[in-house]
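Standup notes
- DV: blocked on the single-chain target, sequence here:
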Amino acid sequence: MAYLVGHREFFSLSFQVTSDVLIPRPETEALVVRALDLAKSMSGPLQIADVGTGSGILAVCCAKHLPRCSVTAIDLSPKALQIAKQNAAKHEVAERIEFVGGDLFAERPAEPTFDLILSNPPYVASTEMPELETGVRDYEPHMALDGGEQGTEVIERLIPQAAERLKPGGWLLIEVSPNNVERVEQLVSSADGLQGHETIVDLAGLPRIVQAQRQGG
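- DV (later): unblocked, structure below
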């Protein structure tokens, strides 16, 4: 377990991680890059939600690299939120991040609030959990990994909730598994008010970041 405790470099920033949160992975960096690119095309102050923040990587990176944004970082795990708060304080962005404990958007009203909603949700199918590397399976939190029978149990609830809370023209970015990307794309295409966009591939050329935009912008 010791290898999980300490700092991990991500997007030129160092993050504290423990066994209560996932280890930063290169695939997630693609999500941050895309979020920053989209933010450049938006005017005015930005409202960003990081759903399932874990160690706070998405929230902190956005707050650090986008001084005009405010971030809502949401997680069901109180221990994960504590790590996220520590990382935000370390990088001096805690004053622009609101930390919320809850299941997805349960603690947020269903109204168009956010310009960007980002999420690295649990997306490993339950049947695939025993096949994960030992260091992942035995020491990283299963709640942040196990996405149910098809790996999309959380994502199925996230997409309609996100659609309700995006401003017109706002974007939803979700990190997924290549094994369930088609299922997630179908969920996006059938969601009221969302228009799917081309899925972004990771450094290995695998489909990884599903994109959707709220219509009306």
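- Follow-up: The helical segments are 26-40, 57-65, 78-90, 134-137, 153-165, 181-189.
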